[in-house]
Amino acid sequence: MSDTTLTRHTWVAMGPAGTIGWITGGEGGYTFKLVNDTQERAVYPNLEVAKSALHAALVPGTDWPEFREH
After folding, report:
1. What distance lies between CA 62 and its chain's CA centroid?
2. One-letter-per-residue 3-state SS of 1-68
3. Distance between CA atoms of 12 and 22, rounded to whole angstroms?
4. pLDDT tens digits, residue range 5-45?
5. 38 belongs to a structural domain
6. Domain region containing 45
7. Is 0.90 surpassed by the pTM of this model?
8. Record's superkingdom (predicted)?
9. Mean pLDDT of the chain
């Protein structure tokens, strides 16, 4: 039996029209999915890099989304 507990956190990316996507983070790094993605994207080393990658995946000129931790 292991004493290890896996903790995962989720941040929802919100734009003017609602949810754009979400970032999930845990011990192995952070990844994100946009609403229409079928699978998670690459693993990023920290939350700020994952936020930037999510924003870069949006249509050029899109405002920075609001990130809400859940």
Report:
1. 16
2. CCCCCCCCEEEEEEECCEEEEEEEEECCEEEEEECCCCCCCCCECCHHHHHHHHHHCCCCCCCCCEEE
3. 4
4. 557 899 999 999 999 999 999 889 999 999 999 999 999 99
5. yes
6. 9-69
7. no
8. Bacteria
9. 92
H or E element that contains 69: strand 66-69
User: Residue 17 corresponds to which amino acid?
Assistant: A
The number of beta carbons lying within 10 Å of the beta carbon of residue 11 is: 22
CB crowding 39-58: b at 16 or more within 10 Å, else e: eebeebeebeebbebbbeeb
Is the residue at 59 inside a domain?
yes
Any domain includes 44? yes
Number of domains in the chain: 1
